[in-house]
Amino acid sequence: HAADAHRTDLMTITRFVLNEQSKYPESRGDFTILLNHIVLGCKFVCSAVNKAGLAKLIGLAGETNVQASSCQMPDMEFASGEEQKKLDVLSNEVFVKALVSSGRTCILVSEEDEEATFVDPSKRGRYCVVFDPLDGSSNIDCGVSIGTIFGIYMMKDNHEPTLDDVLQPGKQMLAAGYCMYGSSCTLVLSTGEGVNGFTLDPSLGEFILTHPDIKIPKKGKIYSVNEGNAKNWDGPTAKYVEKCKFPKDGSSSKSLRYIGSMVADVHRTLLYGGIFLYPADKKSPSGKLRVLYEVFPMSFLMEQAGGQAFTGKQRALDLVPTKIHERSPIFLGSFDDVEDIKALYAAEGKKE
Ligand code: P6P
């Protein structure tokens, strides 16, 4: 029976990527090995985030060195009290160690590290990984979903790695994805041939394909922006949000949904449709979100799912970053909704 086949024919993320890799006979499986190490990091963070509240509780009971029982990494102990490593620092250490130990990376850029990590030549591979190990981590204590966001470049050519290998436009990314730590642990990934979602089955410790070939609705009923910044918005953003609330064409107004955790807001946008905005404003003329490991991966996924992503000036993936922690305004989501705000910026441009 089809249902039984589905239950017994487990499509794990590893098997899925191997299937994709098999289309490129020349590939030596390096990408699959790299991805498996990213998946390992996500499994650890999922476990640590789910324990965070509990570990803190036990910590308050004065116990020290509460071992995160589910992972056999002794040096990843939870200390109690103030030595408790912040989860984003811990997550960063796990991802850096996992990526270096994969032997497939040469440069790592993390939101947590001011400088890029150049992997020792003895452990070097061809991939450059840019990531935010725990985006939205300020939301942990109130139980809001948070996530890991990552993007993967191939180094430009076989020379000594330099920052130029990561200061590439987003359209050069080979793959991008995020892992959301919420009611379930969901990993959404694109390797350039569409978007697929995998859910962690904790009893197997495997990510299973649960959302094959995700496509974002062409137009949505939701807009997602921090309305608290409205007084600082530029004209086109203000006009667009006004249109969402008071549509002139008699259509119904859009609902506002804003969680304040990018992975959660983008995941909802991807599945339900609509538009996510983090515009520039007078206080931060480049917006708040980081190009390499927030804007590019989410823009890559949106385009792969049939949506689009715009900076207010250009297609987000065409942007060429000059600094590894550079920021950019971003408008991403359903194709038609982003088209509407592009038209408003274009009209503004004509006036200037
Ligand atoms: P604001 C979280 O701190 C974050 O980096 C993103 O995850 C999120 O989309 C954004 O900032 C929220 O920013 O200014 O609306 O609180």
Automatic annotation (TrEMBL):
Protein's UniProt keywords contain Ribonucleoprotein: no
GO CC annotation, single: cytosol
Residues annotated as domain Fructose-1-6-bisphosphatase class 1 C-terminal: 216-345
UniProt entry keywords in alphabetical sequence: Carbohydrate metabolism, Cytoplasm, Hydrolase, Magnesium, Metal-binding
Keyword Kinase: no
Gene3D superfamilies: 3.40.190.80, Fructose-1,6-Bisphosphatase, subunit A, domain 1
Biological processes annotated in GO: fructose 1,6-bisphosphate metabolic process; fructose 6-phosphate metabolic process; fructose metabolic process; gluconeogenesis; photosynthesis; sucrose biosynthetic process
Needed cofactors: Mg(2+)
GO molecular function, one term: fructose 1,6-bisphosphate 1-phosphatase activity
Enzyme class: hydrolase
UniProt-annotated location(s): Cytoplasm
Superkingdom of the organism of origin: Eukaryota
Its EC number(s): 3.1.3.11
Residues in Fructose-1-6-bisphosphatase class I N-terminal domain copies: 11-212
Swiss-Prot/TrEMBL catalytic activity: beta-D-fructose 1,6-bisphosphate + H2O = beta-D-fructose 6-phosphate + phosphate
Principal cellular location given in the protein's record: cytoplasm
Similarity comment: Belongs to the FBPase class 1 family.
NCBIfam families, alphabetized: PRK09293.1-1 (NF006778)
PANTHER family: FRUCTOSE-1,6-BISPHOSPHATASE, CYTOSOLIC, FRUCTOSE-1,6-BISPHOSPHATASE-RELATED
Protein name: Fructose-1,6-bisphosphatase, cytosolic
Organism: Gossypium australe
